């Protein structure tokens, strides 16, 4: 039997009706939905490739939009954390440095994924007909499936711990759920 008392206490710190929190949840959920819908639409219609004159230009444009949306998501996440109370027992060096280490590992996975895949491999080039010569199996893909998604989730987890933020932890769970759904949809 699971003791949920700690979870109930932890999330007693979170006001899920706060506008900033709701905006953060919506931005977290929107991003993977947006890029999957647009990529599948492009794959079926080649409309973006026609508008931009080439699949590469269209992919770079979509990638840029995704990067901007990710910046907006991170900003909303941070603002939602700042507007909610901290968990005072976690506002200490140990938690801060643990969060920093988790964020560093997440950053390693995100950057190494990008370096292994390149821009078009990272930003849905296969939907534009830009295919890699072979499947990438080197690090970090040799360690973890979907390292970009789980690295990003780790960054948010670390960021939440660094800020001793129960709201951040709940939003990190939303990130993980959104990516899990995206992986199922993409697979």
UniProtKB/TrEMBL annotation:
<keyword id="KW-0256">Endoplasmic reticulum</keyword>
<keyword id="KW-0949">S-adenosyl-L-methionine</keyword>
<dbReference type="Pfam" id="PF04191">
    <property type="entry name" value="PEMT"/>
</dbReference>
<dbReference type="GO" id="GO:0032259">
    <property type="term" value="P:methylation"/>
</dbReference>
<keyword id="KW-1133">Transmembrane helix</keyword>
<keyword id="KW-0812">Transmembrane</keyword>
<keyword id="KW-0472">Membrane</keyword>
<keyword id="KW-0489">Methyltransferase</keyword>
<keyword id="KW-0443">Lipid metabolism</keyword>
<feature type="transmembrane region" description="Helical">
    <location>
        <begin position="94"/>
        <end position="119"/>
    </location>
</feature>
<dbReference type="GO" id="GO:0000773">
    <property type="term" value="F:phosphatidyl-N-methylethanolamine N-methyltransferase activity"/>
</dbReference>
<keyword id="KW-1208">Phospholipid metabolism</keyword>
<feature type="transmembrane region" description="Helical">
    <location>
        <begin position="167"/>
        <end position="185"/>
    </location>
</feature>
<dbReference type="GO" id="GO:0006656">
    <property type="term" value="P:phosphatidylcholine biosynthetic process"/>
</dbReference>
<comment type="pathway">
    <text>Lipid metabolism.</text>
</comment>
<keyword id="KW-0496">Mitochondrion</keyword>
<feature type="transmembrane region" description="Helical">
    <location>
        <begin position="20"/>
        <end position="39"/>
    </location>
</feature>
<dbReference type="InterPro" id="IPR007318">
    <property type="entry name" value="Phopholipid_MeTrfase"/>
</dbReference>
<keyword id="KW-0444">Lipid biosynthesis</keyword>
<dbReference type="GO" id="GO:0005789">
    <property type="term" value="C:endoplasmic reticulum membrane"/>
</dbReference>
<keyword id="KW-0808">Transferase</keyword>
<protein>
    <recommendedName>
        <fullName>Phosphatidylethanolamine N-methyltransferase</fullName>
        <ecNumber>2.1.1.17</ecNumber>
        <ecNumber>2.1.1.71</ecNumber>
    </recommendedName>
</protein>
<dbReference type="InterPro" id="IPR024960">
    <property type="entry name" value="PEMT/MFAP"/>
</dbReference>
<dbReference type="GO" id="GO:0004608">
    <property type="term" value="F:phosphatidylethanolamine N-methyltransferase activity"/>
</dbReference>
<comment type="pathway">
    <text>Phospholipid metabolism; phosphatidylcholine biosynthesis.</text>
</comment>
<keyword id="KW-0594">Phospholipid biosynthesis</keyword>
